[in-house]
Write a structure and sequence with these properties.
single chain; 113 residues; 5 helices
Length: 113
């Protein structure tokens, strides 16, 4: 059984709010901090959390609008796509992960990715 990270639920909720506010770098930072304990654990949530982090970075690159931003953003979204497999409904914080993925998909449409 994976060791529970009590900050993960709060981080996912904060991530979503920051994403909706266009604060993509901050969303990345919030979720990355909560992801660190998961990254070496045999926890199915680690891959999806990392994918959400990649998505936030993609939008941050687009927001910055530098010469290579779109290409870097597309690569980051590909990393998100590789990791976004749905979690079983019994997984801790399943609903929060689902809502974050829905938010990423909405933003993806707005940014034309």
């Amino acid at each position: 059984m994976p060791r529970e990270n009590p900050d993960l639920q709060a981080a996912l909720r904060r991530y979503r709010l920051l994403m909706l506010e266009g604060e993509y770098f901050e969303a990345h930072e919030v979720l990355e901090e909560a992801w660190h304990p998961l990254r070496r654990a045999d926890d199915p949530r680690r891959h999806l959390a990392k994918g959400l982090i990649n998505a936030a970075i993609a939008f941050e690159h687009l927001r910055r609008d530098l010469p290579k931003s779109r290409r870097v953003a597309l690569k980051a979204m590909q990393a998100y796509d590789r990791r976004k497999a749905p979690l079983p409904s019994y997984t801790e914080y399943h609903k929060e992960f689902q809502i974050c993925c829905e938010t990423v998909e909405e933003l993806r449409g707005e940014w034309g990715l």
